[in-house]
Amino acid sequence: MTATERRGDSPxxxxxxxxxxxxxxxxxxxxxxxGVPVRRALRVLRHLPAHGMRCSVLTAxxxxxxxHGLDPxxxxxxxxxxxxxxxxxxxxxxxxxxSAWNALGALRRRSTPASEAPATTDAGAQGAGxxxxxxxxxxxxxxxxxxxxxxxxxxxxxxxxxxxxxxWATGYPWSSFWLARELARTLGVPYALDYRxxxxxxxxxxxxxxxxxxxxxxxxxxxxxxxxxxDWLRDxxxxxxxxEPKAETMTNGYDPDEFPPLDxxxxxxxxxxxTYTGTFNDAWPPSPADQSPWWxxxxxxxxxxxxxxxxxxxxxxxxxxAVRQAVARERLGDVVEIVGPVAHDHALAHQVAADHLLLIxxxxxxxxxxxxxxxxxxVGARRPVLxxxxxxxxxxxxxxxxxxxxxxxxxVERIAELLSGIVTEWRARGRPPAAPVVR
Length: 439
Fold this sequence. Notes:
Elements: H1 3-9, E1 22-26, H2 36-47, E2 54-60, E3 83-87, H3 92-110, H4 128-137, H5 145-161, E4 166-171, H6 175-187, E5 191-195, H7 210-222, E6 225-228, H8 231-240, E7 247-249, E8 272-277, H9 294-301, H10 305-310, E9 311-316, H11 321-329, E10 336-340, H12 344-353, E11 356-360, H13 373-381, E12 385-388, H14 393-400, E13 404-407, H15 412-429
Parallel strand pairs: 1-2, 1-4, 2-3, 4-5, 5-6, 6-7, 8-9, 8-11, 9-10, 11-12, 12-13
Helix pairs in contact: 5-6, 9-15
């Protein structure tokens, strides 16, 4: 089948008659930005050329993300054939509001007893109502809107030099979706939307307002294709936007070529190492929407001295001060090792060197929809997983592929039992064998 025929079969349009179609990928999160938001677009860009497409990516000059740091090494992962166009991020207002929000959060934590149990109500993140109001009236639809306006000008200039034939926008941010529609109208090309997470169906409930829902419906209605990272997201979109469902599942994946060989120097023969890679939220105690080690720390406290002495829980990534303070306050520094943020390739090296990998997903409303990108990388690292997750996508994936053990994220007693069993098995047999290959 020729490239022209493939283009004719695509819901994104027929392309030109002279060469591969030129696809514009809109991805605010892109190297040198780091963290899990970067990986999906980067992996798509690495593989689209093999399917007869030529790509440019539209991103920010200085992407701002308060939860994920920079990873300049990621630039080396961008294929040389991909043109990168950067527009001004215009993130000053967002940074200011984030600083104010963090200050308010610190005040709330100081006024909350450290031993107070987390709320179990359907509350989402504390203060979500204030943040929803800000995003509906000041930063609609999200704080990246200033970048989207600047990016529209850059994309128009790019199209004048090298015509774009289709647009694929990945979100969050949702302003990327708005940008895709506006460019599609201006340039006369079709657009596709990619949901890494839910928008108005997001567990954090920051965008579940009537105004956000109206915009989402308009943007989905105009899209030629909608891709979703999980079946839950696909089904939710197709149900809410019936009678014309158009969402298809495009799962996250891992790239075997990204994983480094095992570095023997990273092995710890004196401890059973349980590694978590990724970020935690600031709230302490956590809300039902927060990814938090709150219950894990309680479970570790229930372990006997011998088990604790053989266990090392390694946190690789952004760990907020509230968690660090809790580890010190509960005298868990002999068990919990906080590595902090590292480059993506180093995070993968930590995964490969672990005895077990740790996954934590909150059990708040809609949290069952979460199939975090780190789980897919854990699959590629081929280490057994201890998953502290609710019923939903993540639990089904772990169980369906035999990736490890699962337990509810708040079941402290059961978590302690599983930790004890993992250490006992490690003492008897040493480092666990590689987990199954899952393609």
